[in-house]
Design a protein that fits this description.
Elements (H helix, E strand, L loop, with lengths): L1 H30 L12 H12 L8 H4 L16 H16 L6 H31 L1 H13 L1 H7 L5 H21 L5 H14 L6 H13 L8 H22 L2 H4 L1 H15 L18 H11 L2 H25 L7 H15 L14 H16 L13 H16 L1 H4 L3 H12 L5 E5 L21 E5 L7 H13 L2 E4 L16 H11 L5 E6 L5 E2 L2 E4 L12 H5 L5 E4 L5 H4 L7 E5 L5 H8 L12
């Protein structure tokens, strides 16, 4: 009797307790520091979502014709993302403000949005557990859920209300349903699978390729060796899945049909952007980056940390090879549900990895699979055979789990400190002389913060001049640059958005490249007098990104001379989208020596020669 109780405890109670601990950890990591920007909306995509949501309203009286009126108040008129996240936030806000009126305004309901983002991501952690348990057993499911809970990209994106965490949740829900269908059959599986796919597309239309995986799941259900569905039922189920998908998509994003022209234009614009067909400043950082390898390395290094990143991709290769061998051997006769995940990973990464624009968040729909396969590989190595009297594979699992946990703990340092722009604004308000002229960059948030409150509200004390650094180099741009440098008392670089991308294109931006080289080298009469930075850090070890070495820019003296306590690891370039929202590095320069236009022109040298005239 006692041994039976111990067995029940081991097989049921302990795994349940482990899952509770994993869920609690995931909740803590996602809700801690949720007010990281104090409501200043430093993430431009999140800011846009809130603006669009704020303008939404259910028509009064509520009729179907009024609700679906293209000119009505329920049309978001914004289709870069799906409408579901904005409708959801609008409805949650309307409910919440009845009990808490303060949450009815945009400058408070961002907490609700980020809370939703965090909850959906915790849901993804639980779905990873379900997926791992179904395919590889309970131990793998628990380890995969733990790795997902600790995955840094999941933690970071949970602190933003964009659409990424919602999309990942619905994608995982489709995959869980598809795996269950392939393993157990069931005609009515079409309903939850179709609903999840429709919701995924209503979150972001880029989820549409999942339809291929759903169709494959019905094929596998019809090819099972035991209790296979008839071809008629499988085909009918596939059609029903499609019908439910379209119905739910129409419900979540009705104006894709009602205002289809605007929808097509919005989706086409985003498609052109990711393919490099539109030249926007924030996509220039990807010019010259290698397809697939860039996302592989950036995801491994920053999104997951090297232990989990390398284990995850190695696991992906392992299961892919296994599925290819099984496919060749069985000739479609006995294929497992794992094929669905492999197919989705290859399909999705095959598309996204080849894009011109490679934001790290684009990987979130397959990051859970990397966590799953990293766990599967680690456990398989743990249980592997001895080599030379030792089980060398037992090094991998502790390294992956501990490394991922330590990296997650280090990343939380970002949210343990005030945002760097807030700290920089406090310093400016205390140290810049009144009525000074500040040169700032367009396409970035100016410092001091224009929307600052309390002791941050000093922008009215200064005059601002904007340098259009992202414009093409022309004679007009040169004249404006010289005028700005002569007349400004301070120069502010709020982040590396421009100085870390434009100098990588010296043939296209010779003037701008030379300007940044001279400014950062403190040769234009301005010296760096202050900067702020926050990096992932733990136990005296700081994991810093490098914004200077690529593309070979000089490091200002103040930065070069500072020695921090502990060990500082320079991990090289980080994707801009990983740093500029929640931990950018602002640089503040003060004029220490006035140079004339002629002296500045001489310093710019050949870069200022032969420029086109500019706009007429």
């Amino acid at each position: 009797m006692r041994s039976r109780r111990i067995k029940i405890l081991t097989e049921q109670a302990l795994p349940a307790l482990a899952l509770v601990i994993i869920t609690a950890t995931a909740l803590f990591l996602r809700f801690y520091g949720i007010d990281w920007d104090q409501g200043y909306f430093f993430h431009p995509d999140e800011r846009q979502v809130y603006y669009v949501t704020d303008a939404l309203a259910l028509p009064q009286p509520l009729t179907l014709s009024a609700l679906l009126d293209p000119e009505g108040t329920w049309n978001p008129n914004f289709f870069a993302y799906g409408s579901l996240p904005m409708y959801l936030l609008r409805l949650v806000t309307d409910v919440a403000k009845r009990a808490f009126p303060a949450y009815g305004v945009r400058y408070a309901n961002y907490i609700l949005g980020r809370g939703l983002s965090a909850l959906f991501d915790v849901g993804t952690v639980l779905l990873v557990y379900v997926l791992g348990r179904r395919l590889y057993g309970r131990a793998t499911g628990l380890l995969a859920a733990a790795l997902s809970a600790l995955a840094v990209l999941h933690i970071q994106l949970s602190h933003f209300y964009t659409v990424d965490t919602l999309l990942a949740f619905f994608v995982l829900a489709v995959l869980v349903g598809a795996v269950r269908l392939a393993q157990r059959g069931g005609f009515w599986s079409a309903l939850p699978i179709g609903a999840a796919l429709g919701a995924a597309m209503g979150t972001k239309v880029s989820a549409a390729p999942l339809a291929v995986i759903v169709a494959l799941a019905w094929l596998l259900a019809a090819r099972r060796q035991t209790h296979a569905l008839s071809w008629h039922l499988a085909l009918s189920g596939c059609v029903l899945s499609g019908v439910v998908t379209l119905g739910v998509f129409a419900f979540c994003e009705p104006f894709a049909f009602v205002d289809w022209g605007a929808f097509v234009v919005g989706v086409a614009r985003e498609s052109l952007m990711v393919q490099g067909g539109i030249d926007w400043p924030y996509t220039r950082q990807y010019i010259g980056t290698l397809p697939y390898l860039y996302l592989f390395w950036q995801t491994s290094k920053w999104s997951l940390g090297l232990p989990l990143g390398l284990a995850g991709f190695a696991g992906a290769i392992w299961v892919t090879v296994r599925q290819v061998r099984r496919l060749i051997a069985s000739r479609l006769g006995d294929l497992g549900a794992e094929l669905l995940l492999v197919s989705w990973f290859l399909l999705y990464f095959g598309l996204v990895g080849g894009f011109h624009t490679k934001f790290l968040r684009y990987m979130l729909p397959v990051i859970p699979l990397l966590c799953l396969w990293g766990a599967h590989l680690s456990l398989s190595l743990w249980q592997g055979r001895r080599v030379a009297g030792a089980r060398w594979g037992r090094v991998v699992l502790p390294l992956v789990l501990a490394g991922t946990g330590l990296y997650a703990a280090a990343f939380m340092n970002i949210y343990r400190h005030e945002h760097t722009w807030v700290r920089a604004t406090e310093w400016i308000c205390a140290h810049y002389k009144r009525d000074a002229t500040i040169m700032v960059e367009s396409w970035d948030d100016p410092l001091p913060l224009w929307q600052g409150q309390g002791n941050l509200r000093c922008m009215g004390n200064y005059h601002f001049q904007f340098f259009e650094a992202h414009d093409e180099d022309t004679q007009d741009k040169l004249d404006m640059l010289l005028t700005l440098l002569v007349s400004s008392d301070y120069v502010g670089l709020s982040s590396n958005r421009l100085y870390n991308s434009l100098p990588r294109l010296p043939e296209r931006f010779p003037l701008t490249t030379r300007y940044y080289q001279l400014l950062l080298g403190e040769q234009l009469g301005f010296e760096l007098v202050h900067y702020e930075e926050t990096h992932p850090a733990l136990f005296g070890v700081t994991m810093a990104d490098d914004t200077f070495s690529n593309p070979d820019l000089p490091v200002p003296a103040l930065l070069a001379s500072v020695t921090s306590a502990g060990l500082r690891l320079n991990l090289g370039r980080a994707d801009e989208s990983f740093t500029v929202y929640d931990h950018p590095k602002p640089l503040l320069f003060a004029k220490t020596r006035a140079l004339s236009r002629e002296e500045l022109l001489a310093l710019l040298g050949d870069a200022a020669q032969g420029l086109p005239a500019g706009a007429e």
